[in-house]
Specification:
With about 130 residues, the protein is mostly helical. The chain has two domains: about 70 residues; about 50 residues. Helices cover about 95% and strands about 0% of the residues. The protein is built from two helices and no strands.
Amino acid sequence: MLQTLLTRTAVMQAQMQIQNESMLATLKLMQEGQQALAREVAVLRDGQNELRVTTGVMQAELKALNERMTYYATEAKVESVRTEVESVRTALHKAIEAQTWRLMIWMTAAGSGLVGATYYIARNVH
């Protein structure tokens, strides 16, 4: 019986040793993963800092652009451009209307001439 107890104890100690080694290997893998994760977080933080700097530069440029836009796009200038566009639009419509009437007159004259020519041929050519 003592022999059986000693054997069982030795087997249990061997199993415990195997489990301990397995747990140590798992712990080591977890520590390596944690270190890799810490390196990735550091890279992300560096990227975030660069992004903050870039965002600050972009905001400064946007502010400068807004200042320039307020200089160029004053209300009076916008109104003068609208007036100019309206005058060009009116002139374009008048030109199109004049061209349309010229085309109508020309087509009427050409059509009348063709009718006259047809009548002359039909009457005088036998």
